[in-house]
User: Fold this.
Amino acid sequence: MLIDTHCHLDFAVFKDLSALLADSRSAGVEHFIVPSTTARSWAGIVDLAKQHSEISVALGLHPYFLDKFEHEHLKQLETALSSHKVVAVGEIGLDKWPRMPDYDLQYEVLLAQLNMAQSHHLPVILHARKSEDDLLKVLRQTRFSQGGIVHAFNGSLEQAKRFIELGFVLGIGGTVTYPRAQKARKVLQALADEDFVLETDSPDMPVSGYQGQVNTPLRVVDIVRVVAELRQQSVADIARFTSANLQRVLPNWNKV
Ligand SMILES: [Zn+2]
Assistant:
């Protein structure tokens, strides 16, 4: 069984979700973790999990979408985490790309959500863009001990090791399918079997050969093929240990 540990299946671009889930299942991709973006997205995401038993969800406030942020949303998140079955708080994090929402605000919202995840004993799904060192620092300062997934990891091997020490695994997706992604490929080759899970970040992050198309969880099949080649392991072995890794870091992922 393959699992897409990060796909935004609530986005409007996925018009016929039942057909997509059926196609994915036939291709061997059988479970899906859907993280959220804004407070407004939570109700729809919770509904997705109610309609499809193969979908698990995370609730949180994504740094990229903070232009719609109101302080009330943090209180609403606290309530939502107590009333819905979620596998993690996410996606949350820091984005240092140009023209992103105010970094101090990103930091403040991240801090509040890490403390919330800690008190609910929930892992987190982290979004990191040019911000890996800042994230490592805040995880240490808050003594965050619930672990989780650093989604679409694109940092150095040194940073990877520090996240792993803190109880995280790394989300490996479309980036490694590009031969020019030398750094990401080298990091992947140096990781232990225990250190990563697979993801597509659908509908974003197109896999090599599918540029210009909407990315879907079906592409986990292409990603795992490249991972197998790069690490000289079998697809079956990677499917087995990445599922075990997910079970370890997000222990509620398959509890209906
Ligand atoms: Zn995402």
User: Anything to note?
Assistant: The CA atoms of residues 24 and 218 lie 5 Å apart. Residues 6, 8, 35, 91, 201 surround zinc ion (CB under 6 Å). The chain has nine helices and eight strands.
